[in-house]
Amino acid sequence: MLDRSVMVEDPTSYVDYRIERPGIEALRGIVGILELDKASLYMHEAVMPSAVAARSADIERAGAFLEPVVIAARGGGLLADTDDLAEMRSVMYGDEVHTVAAASPDHDHGLNAETEFVVIDGHHRIAAARQHAHLNAMVPSILAFVVDVDSPGLFVVPQHRVLGGRVVDLDAIPDHISTGPYQRGDTVPPGSVAIVGQGVSVVLSVSSPRPEDLQARISSVTLADHLIEPLSLWVQGFATREVDAYAELDSGACAVAIMGDLAMSDIVGTASAGIVLPEKTTCFNPKVAVGLVGVTS
Question: Is the pTM of this model over 0.90?
């Protein structure tokens, strides 16, 4: 794998990374080494210890970071204006074209400067990198794919929940939660949760949320803070696609929670405010091709 990767040599070197998809604006950023103790990072999700352990094992086995985390920089100015960069490698990743090019040598990318970064994808990898550095007496760093926070080529979707428990008791829904009808395939508003189980299909919303409440538009918070305990349910799995959540329901799960749409501005806003959302709240796309760019650990 390593001999086919474009390797970033040190914290001062970068490569240009572009993801092109049919009918969608290309996503472009830079890939380089981010020294974690020097960076101003805003995390938006909690991490699960088991997932951190799995990422740590991947780092140890490979002896390298082969999957960059995705972080968004506020303020822009990361990319050179030129498009005539020297291509180093290009691969197909499904229907996407991933291209790595030599970054402009005279452009100040500012990856370790006073830029504020919001972690988009890779919370568990960052925690694993810190763990790896601590165990090996190294400077904590990570391979990062950095994009502008308002890039139109970056998309966020919610992670749905597979729920464990007994029969969903609608009488146990708290008084401050409003209830409405729901059918599979309906759009779930931001901040609301559709609970679908055996003989149950409702969309639930917090009644009259405060306009200043940043978490009111995040469905995973509504589920965790207002519904799980009263309904005697628990989260036993996650699904990015609704069809996969419903497959778990059809295979015998007690219920599934279909989450409302997410906006990038809401994720950035909660992260910047220091609000940590429940684990697996978000899924971002497109993904970086694993192993195309790497750095030894």
Answer: no
